[in-house]
Amino acid sequence: MNKFSRIGFILAAAGSAVGLGNIWKFPYITGEFGGGAFVIVYLLAILFIGLSVFIAESIIGQHGESDVSTSFVRISKSKNPKWKFAGFVIFAGLIILSFYSVVLGWILNYVFTSFQGLPTEASVAGATFGALTKDISTQIFYHTIVAGTVIFIVLKGIKDGIERINLILMPLLALILFGLFLYAVSLDSFSQAMSFMFVPDWSKINGSAMLAALGQAFFTLSLGVGTIITYSASLPKDTNFVKTSMYVAFVDTLVALIAGIIIFTFLFEAGAPSAAGPGLVFISLPVVFSDWGILGQVIAISFFVALVFAGITSAVSMIEPSLLFFIERYNMTRQKATILCGSIFYFAGIIALLSMSDEFGPALTFAGKNTFDWMDFITSSIMMPLAAILTCVFIGFYVDKDLLRDKFTKHTSVLVFDAWYILVKYIVPFAITILFLNKLGFIS
Ligand code: TRP
Q1: What is the residue with the minimal CA distance to atom 7 of ligand 1?
Q2: How far is CA 194 from CA 90, 198, 261, 288, 433, in A?
Q3: CATH number for the domain whose boundaries are 6-439
Q4: Model-level pTM greater than 0.85?
């Protein structure tokens, strides 16, 4: 199999992790949960829970050296072929990609419309955004561009496609974020944003804030759909997987924090509210930028371009587990696998966007949720938590402990191994089970 270089792996895994989850979702949920205390809970969730599962997926991939199904079977104690069913998780990636591509299309649309001008009032910005999410032809147009780009990249394979695009886009993303950050530092509201993000007010933390932090930690690290297992299958054998996992988690967290600081500085500068929900980036920010004239337009365009870059590198990571599955298990060529999986997510994306329109919405709405929301719900509330629990139980009970200890202690101390093992075997599955039951409405 075509392998990543070590730095190529770190960039690609970081490219997968850093996405709309960091720049759009993290700031808006931090805003909704009132800042500082939520950020601290989130950091703990990344450090103790997200990172542990990341390392677990990385071991399965690096030592299974194959697609998700085959890797599970290979590293299980019993080599029981039934473990291949653990590979179901890869389909979550295709479902997520279907609507992720539609959302990336909105952002691409924002890049172009920002050239023409920005809305000066929140009501106008809200109406524009609302109209876009119901406009079938515009959404299909942008979804097609995004899907085409993703397909083009993965057709070229791990090294010439995925590694190369990350090598180009990740530094550009860092550059844009750094520029925006410097601008934020120069503004008066920077210190207000810093205290909003880092001074905890513990009265704002409750169960749902903790669960949101935990769910976000999984989503942002691309866990639970086999992405990290698949990428790690291309990780050179002797690479220190504990270190690479820590680098990726660190970069991902840094980007989320910086995005938060930038966005809250901008919002506070304009006196806009911090708890605007999902419309924060699509409705509140454009209005803030419009106050700054031509500079605002430049900032708006750079910001949305950064989001597109971050999103594209994540999108390719959602389809790759399925491709590798069909390539390894069904002996398909990469071209065939890409055409198959590419068509699936492309058409599912069209159904997702049709389900938001006035014309087709009613026919594509079931039990009060449209198809777009169902795709989100089935993946993030059901498939991903189940996959994470399965991964932990697998590692804790069905993989030889001595084998794991050996792999770890080549790179770290026994103490680190013991801590990780206890987390993965007992603590993480317990925490996710609570999250899972809550999302399904059994506990609130
Ligand atoms: N981590 C990405 C983000 O924060 C999204 C993502 C990419 C993802 N690959 C994934 C989420 C796999 C879940 C599973 O935007």
Answers
A1: 314
A2: 38, 6, 6, 18, 34
A3: 1.20.1740.10
A4: yes
